[in-house]
Write a structure and sequence with these properties.
The complex is a heterodimer of chains A (about 170) and B (about 210). Chain A is an all-alpha fold. The two termini of chain A are about 25 Å apart. Helix content of chain A is about 65%, strand content about 0%. Chain B contains 10 helices and no strands. The two termini of chain B are about 25 Å apart. Chain B is elongated. With about 210 residues, chain B is mainly alpha-helical. The chains are: A mainly alpha (about 170), B mainly alpha (about 210). The interface between A and B is large, with 43 and 32 residues.
Chain lengths: ~170, ~210
C-alpha cells in the first residue's frame, strides 16, 4: 500500500479526531513504510518486533503529531527513537544475512534520504558506526567485531556505548 | 507480521493535539505562583516597586527571562518530534547568560580576588533555596506537561528543563534580592541555575522516557 505524504498528513489529522477508517489506513501505510525503513538496519528477526514497537509508540504518542507539518519526519523521529532504543538492548543473533529486497522502494525518495537511518549513522564517528553495525545490526559478537574492526574488545564496547549515546542525541537531526 | 493493527484501531480515541503554547502558559502560570510566594515571604526590592530598578537588576532579571524563555521554547517544541526540527536558539541565550560568571572570573583574577563577603553571604544560601524551590515547582509542572509529548533527545531535554526552571526560579528570587554586584550573580545565580540543570539532567530523562 502506497500513500503519499499529503494523504498521510490528512488521514492522521482525521485519526486524531477518532476516525477509525483513516487510522487503519495510516497504520497499514506506516507498517509497510517501517518495514522498508528498518530492513537492513537491524537483524532481520528483529524487524517485526521493531515495527510493532514503533506502531505502538505511534498510537501512544499520536497527540504529538502536528497536522500542519509533514507526517513522515514525525514518523521517522519516532522510528529512529525506537530503533536506537532497540540497538541499546543487548542481544545476540546468529543470523548474518540481511535481506535488502525492500530497501529503496520509497516513492518519497528525497524525504527518505533525508531521514534515513544510514544518514544518522553517518553523523557519528566512523569507528563508532562501524562497530555498531557489526555488533548491533549484523549480530556479530564483540570478539568478532574486534577482529574485523581492529579495535580491542574494551574499545569496541566503549565505542558502541558512545556511539549509541550520540545517536540518541541526533534523532531529530537531518 | 505480529503487529495487530486492528487492536490499535479498536483502542482509538480522539486526542487533543499537543500545543506548545499550552506548555508555555503552564510554566508562566507556575512561575507567577513562585513570584507570588517570593513576594509574600520576602518582599520586593524598593526600586522595583518604584518602577526604577537598578541597572544590574534590569540586566540580571532580563537575562534570566531570556534564558528561561529560550530554553522553555526548545523544551515545548521537543514535545512534537520531527526529523529536521532541532531547536538550538537556547545555546545563544546560554552563552549570553554565561557572561555573568565569566565577568566574575575575569574580575577575580584581574583585580583583588573574589570578595569574601559575597562568598560567605548568608543571603546566597537563601538565594539558592528559593531559586531551587521555585525551580522545583516550575520544573515539575513542565515535566508533567512534557509527558504527553514525545521528546526524543531525553538527556538534552533534561538539561533544558533544569535550565528553564532554574532561570525562572532565579528570576523570581531576583525580584527580592538585595545584591547588585556581578560577583553575587556570577556565583549564586549561576550556582542555582547550574544546580537545577544538573538535577534536570539526572531526573527528568527517567520521567519522560517512552
Amino acid at each position: 500500500m502506497r500513500v503519499d505524504e499529503a494523504s498521510l498528513q490528512r488521514l492522521m489529522a482525521l485519526a486524531q479526531q477518532g476516525d477509525a477508517i483513516a487510522y487503519r489506513s495510516v497504520l497499514v501505510a506506516c507498517q509497510h513504510w517501517l518495514v522498508r525503513y528498518f530492513s537492513g538496519r537491524i537483524v532481520p528477526a528483529q524487524v517485526d518486533d521493531l515495527v510493532q514497537d514503533t506502531l505502538a509508540s505511534l498510537h501512544a504518542k499520536r497527540a504529538s503529531y502536528d497536522a500542519s507539518r509533514p507526517f513522515l519526519p514525525w514518523l521517522a523521529a519516532i522510528a529512529r527513537y525506537r530503533w536506537v532504543d532497540q540497538l541499546r538492548r543487548v542481544y545476540r543473533s546468529r543470523e548474518d544475512e540481511l535481506h535488502d529486497d525492500l530497501v529503496g522502494e520509497s516513492e518519497e525518495e528525497s524525504i527518505a534520504a533525508r531521514i534515513s537511518l544510514d544518514r544518522l549513522l553517518d553523523m557519528i564517528p566512523e569507528r563508532q558506526a562501524h562497530v555498531i553495525r557489526l555488533v548491533k545490526i549484523d549480530g556479530h559478537s564483540v570478539a568478532e567485531a574486534s577482529l574485523r574492526s581492529g579495535q580491542s574488545e574494551p574499545l569496541v564496547k566503549v565505542n558502541i556505548h558512545r556511539g549509541l549515546r550520540k545517536l540518541s542525541a541526533l534523532i531529530e537531526s537531518e | 507480521m505480529k503487529v495487530d493493527i486492528e487492536a490499535l484501531v479498536a483502542d482509538l480515541q480522539p486526542v487533543r493535539p499537543v500545543k506548545p503554547n499550552g506548555g508555555i502558559l503552564l510554566v508562566l502560570a507556575t512561575a507567577g505562583v513562585v513570584v507570588a510566594i517570593v513576594v509574600a515571604m520576602l518582599g520586593v526590592r524598593p526600586d522595583v516597586v518604584a518602577g526604577k530598578p537598578h541597572p544590574m537588576v534590569m540586566m540580571r532579571e532580563g537575562m534570566m527571562l531570556v534564558l528561561g524563555f529560550a530554553t522553555l521554547v526548545a523544551v515545548v517544541a521537543s514535545a512534537r518530534p520531527g526529523v529536521g526540527q532541532v531547536s538550538s536558539g537556547w545555546r545563544w541565550a546560554l552563552a549570553a547568560a554565561s557572561l555573568f560568571p565569566l565577568t566574575s572570573i575575569v574580575l577575580t583574577f584581574a583585580g583583588d580576588g573574589f570578595p569574601p563577603a559575597v562568598l560567605f553571604d548568608f543571603d546566597g544560601r537563601i538565594c539558592l533555596a528559593f531559586s531551587a524551590g521555585g525551580a522545583l515547582l516550575i520544573g515539575t509542572s513542565l515535566t508533567l506537561w512534557l509527558r504527553q509529548g514525545a521528546p526524543t533527545a531525553l538527556n538534552r531535554i533534561g538539561w533544558l528543563v533544569g535550565l528553564a526552571s532554574g532561570s525562572f526560579g532565579t528570576f523570581a528570587y531576583g525580584l527580592h534580592c538585595e545584591s547588585v554586584t556581578v560577583f553575587y550573580v556570577g556565583l549564586w545565580y549561576t550556582g542555582a541555575i547550574a544546580m537545577c540543570a544538573v538535577v534536570g539532567r539526572l531526573v527528568v530523562p527517567h520521567l519522560i522516557r517512552w
